[in-house]
Amino acid sequence: MAPPEVLRKDLIMLDLFVNSKGENVKSRGIAIEKKIELLENLAGKVSNRRSRRWLNDRLLMELVPRLNAQEIRGLFAPPPFGDDSPPSPFCMTYSREWDNFRSIDMDKEATMMEALKVSVSKQKRGADNDKVAVLTAWHRVDCQTRKALRRSFLPELINNYEECLRIFIKESSDVLEVCVQDPFQRLLLHGVCEFYNMVSVTVVTQSEGSETAKITKIKKKGDDIKLPNITLCNFLKMSKAGIW
């Protein structure tokens, strides 16, 4: 136990602190600081180990604020003291539905799993075929043209070129003439033609008034041209996104 003098001073200090509860926060803070200062002074004067320990405990109680209910609950947050774990979907289902799922016939289960495997393999095979087709078409494009397509990607222009070529492939006409005067845009047009495995040649024509114009003539290599499901524009977008 602490000596009577220490207890008497401590009781006086507690009375001061209790009476300051009706005041504002600033005055209460000053009262707490005075109380801590008084405890520190008393700790330096007391030589008894038990009394010093008692004063140190009181000092720590004043330095550390009291915890509220939420903070106390946070001390026991890890399971099994914390919040209850949310119920699983199996627990939330009705027992009858869960029993039907659990007691399914083994033959039906094997048939269902086999059907799922077949459907997944078909989807994967279709995706692989599309990937191989678009990569094969992309490698038909000249190396310099591929660099130009990746460096200066113009999706609207390339999409317009592709729409014209796809319509031309489905039609029965033999030659498609496109008038493109810009050299870079004409290079992109040749790249799109190579992507769809078509022949493109640019010729210079002279019109009235001695003005020359360049016309790109596009021809089919054969009648059985297979259009890839993934267009060049979408392929370049996926390449920029990091998918390819």
From TrEMBL:
Taxonomy, superkingdom: Eukaryota
One Gene Ontology term of the molecular function aspect: nucleic acid binding
Location of the R3H-associated N-terminal domain: 32-151
Name by which UniProt lists this protein: R3H-associated N-terminal domain-containing protein
